[in-house]
Every structure is written in C-alpha cells, then in structure tokens.
Design brief:
The chain has 313 residues and is an alpha/beta fold. The chain has twelve helices and twelve strands. β4, α4 and β5 form a beta-alpha-beta unit.
C-alpha cells in the first residue's frame, strides 16, 4: 500500500509509516498540483495539512484512495462530499492541537488587555512611557465569550476559568440545556448575547455557509467598545475590512487574527497598521509539542484504517 504526504509531518511519524507502507513525503508537494496528481494515482492514503486542496480534481486522479489524513481539524480544504460518495475515510487530528490553540488565545487576551508589551524599543532607547501604559486591564474578573464550544472551545474556557475569568458560550449545535455546559462550568447564551456581554470573544467554529462572514458590521456593533476579538478558526468568518474600520475608529479594544480570508495576507490589506491588532501566520495550533501529537495521531490512525481495508497486507 502507498501513502503520500504532501505537507510537513514529524519525521518520526513519517518513519513509522514508511516502516509499514510505501511512503512518499514532500512538505511542498501540496503547492505542486501536477506532481501531486501524478503521485496519488496509486495512493491508498493521502496526508495533508491546510495548504493542499483535496478537491474533485485531485480525488479523480486517485482512484485507489481510501483514506485522507488531516494534520489538523479544519476540513474546508477537503471535498468532503466527494470523499463520502466514494467511501474515502477522512481522519482529522481531533484534539491534538487543542491545547496549543487554547494557550494562544489566553496569551493574546493577556497581551491585548494589558497593552504593555509593545514598549521594548522605547524603553531600550531611554524613554519611559509608563503613564501611557498605566491603563492596562487584568484578565481576572472579565468574561470570556466562546463562540463554538467543541473541544478547543471547551479547553479555552477551562484555561480562562483558571485565570479567574467568567465563561459564557454559544454553539449552534449544542442546546442550552445540554449537560456539556454545566460540566464545563460555562453559561450558555444566545449568540448576540455572547457578543454583547463578553470582554474577550474567541471564535472556534468551522467554516460553513452559515459561518462565512459571521462577524460583520452588525455583529461588531454589538460588542463592547473595549472588547477584544480573537479568531483562530478560519479567516472568512471575520469580515476583515469591517474589523479594520472598527479598530481604527476605536470601536473595539483590540483583536488577534491567526487566520485570514486569503493566506498569506496580501500586502496593503486594510488590516495593515491597525491599532491594537496582533497578526500571526496561521500558527495558533502549531507548537513543537502539538506537531508531535498531531503527526503521531494521524500516522497511527491512517495505518489502522489502511489495515482495516487490507487486513492481510
């Protein structure tokens, strides 16, 4: 059986697959579609991150494909319907990078609320901007609003409570009377109520037709003028130009974006130069530790799936 890996995977996990299957690994393969199509012609499994577009064209080039392993959790780069119609199993690394994302959210919230960590250059130059930075806010006692209460949202809430925050949340798929809310010591709210009440709002929903453009001008207007918005889910969920306008007008306390409508973010974006804005390159779920967890999980699950399809292989 043949496994094709089109993006970075931890070497130890690649080696574990190579010991059992014919394995081809190229961290840049996802960006070379013609070569990818050639390599998947006899592939039984394809392992990707988020750069490889596993669309109808790639799937048509892979008639033997049985498994798609996703080194992450979002599936918007995978044609899920075509995979289902062909019986191709999709295996995401559910939970493996949850801690990395949750820690990112907490760090971003602390930085944005306190507002004291951009003074290094001034202090090193002999300046002392203490009065300008004396109005920072503490995290304890604030309210975190979690939009999307899956595993990452729940873990983010847990870390927030440990830091003294109150946690409220909304999830379209989890009714307000579901035991998950009480088990996680989180108060279920309607979506608009979360936006209105929270001091920090963290987005953890998948990209779907219903969530595309979810945070628009109307939703931003519901938030407190000093609230902080953090998006680690998918860039298309937040309307970037509208967010930029709100930050420039002082109608929002700050924002951290790890994901963007188009990646990499183009030079000249409306977000460039906005005050109280942190931008990172889709890295919230990527740490040394999470890379190991994600790669190990997918290697093991893809191997198990292939052996189910070919038990005597």
């Amino acid at each position: 059986m043949r496994v094709v890996i089109s993006e970075f995977m931890e070497p130890a996990a690649v080696a574990s697959l190579a010991a059992r299957f014919d394995t081809a690994c190229d961290a840049d393969l996802g960006e070379r579609r013609d070569q990818l199509k050639r390599l998947v012609t006899d592939a039984d499994a394809l392992i990707v991150r988020n750069k490889t577009l596993v669309d109808a064209e790639i799937l048509a080039a892979a008639p033997q494909l049985k498994v798609v392993g996703r080194l992450g959790v979002g599936l918007d780069n995978i044609d899920v319907l075509t995979c289902k119609s062909r019986g191709i199993e999709i295996i995401p690394a559910t939970g493996a990078n949850a801690l990395a994302v949750a820690e990112y959210v907490m760090a971003a919230a602390l930085i944005l609320l306190r507002g004291a960590y951009s003074s290094t250059e001034a202090v090193a130059a002999g300046k002392w901007p203490r009065p300008a930075l004396a109005n920072g806010r503490e995290l304890a006692g604030k309210t975190l609003g979690v939009v999307g209460f899956g595993q990452i949202g729940q873990l983010t809430g847990s870390l927030a409570r440990a830091l003294g925050m109150n946690v409220i949340g909304f999830d379209a798929m989890i009714p307000a009377d579901h035991p998950t809310w009480s088990a996680e010591r989180t108060t279920a709210r309607k979506f608009d109520e979360v936006l209105h009440e929270a001091d920090v709002i963290s987005i953890h929903v998948p990209l779907t037709p219903a969530t595309r453009g979810l945070i628009d001008a109307g939703r931003l207007a519901l938030m407190k003028s000093d609230a902080v918005l953090i998006n680690t889910s998918r860039g298309q969920i937040v309307v970037e130009a509208v967010l930029a306008a709100a930050l420039r007008a002082g109608k929002l306390g700050g924002a951290a974006l790890d994901v963007f409508e188009h990646e990499p973010l183009a030079a000249g974006s409306p977000l460039a130069g906005c005050p109280h804005l942190l931008l990172t390159p889709h890295i919230a779920g990527v740490t040394r530790e999470s890379n190991v967890r994600v790669s190990t999980m997918i290697a093991e699950k893809v191997a198990a799936a292939l052996e189910r399809h070919h038990p005597t292989a």
